[in-house]
Amino acid sequence: MSRIRGRDTKPETLVRQRIFAAGWRFRVCDRRFIGRPDIVVPRARTIIDVRGCFWHRHGCADSTMPKSNVAFWMEKWSKNVRRDRRNEEEWRRNGWNLIVVWGCALAGRLRERSLLRICSALDIWAEERAKGTPRARPHRLTLPRQP
Ligand SMILES: [Zn+2]
Q1: How many angstroms does the Cα of residue 131 sit away from the middle of ligand 1?
Q2: DSSP H helix total and E strand total for the chain
Q3: What are the C-alpha distances in Å from 123 to residues 90, 104, 105, 127?
């Protein structure tokens, strides 16, 4: 949380700026979807869910444990994690591809690679959609690959 980052650094902002520059148009916090996903890219039928590692319990080094009020935090986190799971199931059931981007994927050395992977997934999935390639399950990509 107190990790040093550059300016203009909200993780969602980084993703939005990059995909916009790559030519993607998207909706932000769309109320028509459960959980108001951060970014909805209709042409690739993809939802991008940017998750803070601390709040959503990624399990990486950023998922620190507070020294006090542990019960309070545990309760809050379990709600967040349950909500994430519920939203994700609902989006995928409706045929939306999903990219889960953990905050740590956008920090430091991983940032550029993560942003490139997001753009290439959108390219591939949009092309597949344009061709009408049938799929049993929507795509799912998680960044970074490992916590
Ligand atoms: Zn993380």
Answers
A1: 35
A2: 4, 5
A3: 23, 23, 20, 6
CATH number for 27: 3.40.960.10
Total of domains in the chain? 1
Å from CA of 123 to ligand 1 middle: 25
pTM here is: 0.89
For residue 17, the enclosing domain spans 11-143
Could you tell me which of 82, 74, 83, 118 has the C-alpha nearest to residue 97?
A: 118
- Give percent helix, percent strand, percent coil of the chain, each to the nearest 5: 45, 15, 40
d(CA 44, CA 28): 15
pLDDT tens digits, one per residue of 42-56? 999 999 999 999 999
